[in-house]
Amino acid sequence: MYAIGAKSLLVGVTEWCADVAPVGRRPKLGDCWRMESAEQIARLRPTLVIGSVPFKGETLERILKEPMTFVALNPRTLVDVERDIRMVARLVDYAAAGERVIAGMRRELAAIEKRARRKQRVRVYCEAWPKPRISSPPWVAELVEICGGRMVVKPGGRVSDEEVAAGRPEVIILAWAATGARADAKKAYGVADWKDVPAIKNKRVFVVRDELLNTPAPVLVRGAEELARIFGSAKQRITQRR
């Protein structure tokens, strides 16, 4: 909404929106996972409520009981993210602005991909949550590819310590959901099954602010820039070792 210039239409936001947009003093009302009362939203008299992953059933039940139009977004890939931007922009009569945002994201990601292009890709494990261990969503795996890497496990699902170790990642990225930059790299270095993993042996575990990779919005470009910087630096050291 901010990217397309429609911020004046917002009467309330989630508690996480301030991490990626200048929300000012707009009411912050939980999110689709944790919300004390959907009545708080209803009192703002919105004509449209937009929710995105992750969803919790009981929270959605509270929202759907209120007389509000609710749109649930569940993107998985970068194409899905673009589709959602386009849909939201059209719903609020900012269709042209939505297309400009999408075109801008494509240009910036193409530029990053061009700069990061290399013959040998960095083997990467990106993590969205440590317990249970969950790999970053598919759109992050796509960003990894754009930035010159390759995810060594299936994205967007539970993985075991053994599966990560078998992929022998040369770089590990921790972007734990809803933690900002508070992911703990020490926990990765302490995993017994990872002691022979190249990323662990060579001290290449990096924390990336979670909103840069876990927010399905234009801010993903900033996340890609951070990944490209990390991979570029790591690749130089990996090449030297080889």
The CATH superfamily of the largest domain appears as Nitrogenase molybdenum iron protein domain
Listing every helix as H and every strand as E from the N terminus to the C terminus, the arrangement reads HEHEHHEEHEHEHHEHH
Number-wise, the strands total: 7
Shape annotation: globular
List low-pLDDT spans. none
**Main sheet specs:** 5 strands, mixed
CATH class of the largest domain: Alpha Beta
CATH fold title of the largest domain: Rossmann fold
CATH architecture of the largest domain: 3-Layer(aba) Sandwich
Helix content: 40-55%
Cα-based radius of gyration, to the nearest Å: 19 Å
β-strand percent reads 5-15%
Count the DSSP helices: 10
- Average pLDDT value? 93
Task: Tally the structural domains.
Answer: 2
